[in-house]
């Protein structure tokens, strides 16, 4: 409900300014509280599905209405893996919010990261008859937390695999431009409409199409990727055409090995 506290005043000058500042603060607090409530609602909603399925199947087995055959075990496993991912993702986001998501940056090769992430998704791509390749040339040094950078890129490649139909193609590229090192994940998938594109990095946002389809997503992957890129001093962006495909780009500040400075020379 609308319980925002507002100060009404006919005052001028400093008192009016104070009242305005107070009212702005009050509105900000209320909107933060609304966001918090919406987030908890979203979390409950997302947990309910896999948990409900697991409980339902276990009850049916318990009551002798279903048998614990390999197919059923597979279904239970899929649901519990999804639950696990949801909880892991939520923990990452909670740590990010609290400023407790610690990065351990080291001199890392972006090309290595791209190759590793592509390799990790190769089996899933093969299974779906999608061609996945990494196109990397030479070393691209970045100062980054390799585990977190792999996670950020892996979310993009995982999505590309998930939202690309059989016969499609996915490429993971790396590039460098001046002081910037970049990753680019291009797919020939279902794409994202112009109206939906601005929302893809929001928590729990999923297109209507991906909601209705059983894609096994959590709606948190891109929010986490965005946070991780920004925590590295970089950014993530996307362009897309419906039914043609999408390109997601990560840019990071490159690590430069600067020439040693001679303290006896000025300038
Ligand atoms: P999810 O776990 O649902 O994939 P994400 O945060 O990773 O959550 O992505 C949010 C939504 O953005 C997805 O549900 C999907 O609708 C859309 N999306 C993300 N990546 C792609 C892609 N490569 N192609 C088409 N749609 C995508």
UniProtKB/TrEMBL annotation:
Segments forming domain HAMP: 1-34
Protein's cellular compartments: Cell membrane
Domain Histidine kinase: 42-256
UniProt protein name: histidine kinase
Organism the protein comes from: Actinoplanes nipponensis
Organism ancestry: Bacteria, Bacillati, Actinomycetota, Actinomycetes, Micromonosporales
Residue range from the parent sequence: 393 to 659 of 659
